[in-house]
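Please produce the structure of this protein holding orotidine-5'-monophosphate.
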Amino acid sequence: MSFMQALRTRWERADSLVCVGLDPEPSRFPTRFNDAPDAVFQFCRDIVDATAGYVCAFKPQIAHFAALGAESALLRLIEHIHQSHPGIPVILDSKRGDIGSTAAHYAGEAFDRYAADAVTVNPYLGRDSVQPFLDRADRGVVILCRTSNPGAGDLQDLPVAGSDGGRRPLYQHVAEKIARDWNGNGNCALVVGATWPEQLREVRAIVGGLPLLIPGVGAQGGDVAAVVANAKSADGSGMIVSSSRAVLYASAGDDYTDAAATAARALRDQINRYR
Ligand SMILES: O=C(O)c1cc(=O)[nH]c(=O)n1[C@@H]1O[C@H](COP(=O)(O)O)[C@@H](O)[C@H]1O
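Below is the modeled complex.
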């Protein structure tokens, strides 16, 4: 099943638009992991098993594993998700972007080495740099559009000439370009931060039903009601609302799995109330 089919199926069957981000920070793990040699894998696996019933996707963030030399934990974690929770797509958050010949290796890294169903990609180098990802029609290509961080506007808001001759912010141009030209295989999604409700509304108006990955609720303070009101598609879906730290580190005690499950379920319910 393709990433887009799996995502839509999961939206419906689990009745959830929540994505749990897997960003391991060992200093925030419960103390029981202090001497555990395989702590990164075990902690993330526990969170996955506790929250699987409430999510439409999982999103491991590659730097959090690579900086710890824990690539093997990432591999085994994705394998675990596929085996124990079939049907839940995995979005590898690696935000790659390079010349085409190198990008082909990044696509191989995400889709063949790690067996991710989708990957986050930076569009700044242009279409040929994203093409190796776009060519994998069964996999999702989740492209940065208007990121959640405070400096997002430094470059993403710069005015550029639009197709109608008028000027508009670069992120809107990115949204239109991808929805109209790059999405020939129907496998594109866009990243827009939950911290920017106005920009979410603008992007939704441009891209129709294209899925939006929306990080920035929870630890970054994005407002769930505003996100849903501005970013939902015509059928009340279209969103992958991602939260990492607020779920992973909901408790530093021995109740960490219960606390994570409660946080994921509460986010699912809050989103569903507004859509
Ligand atoms: O691509 C992403 O996932 C992403 C895009 C963005 O604009 N902002 C953003 O925070 N993220 C990622 O989403 C996660 C946010 O985590 P929390 O703020 O802990 O929920 C991190 O792994 C970020 O790298």
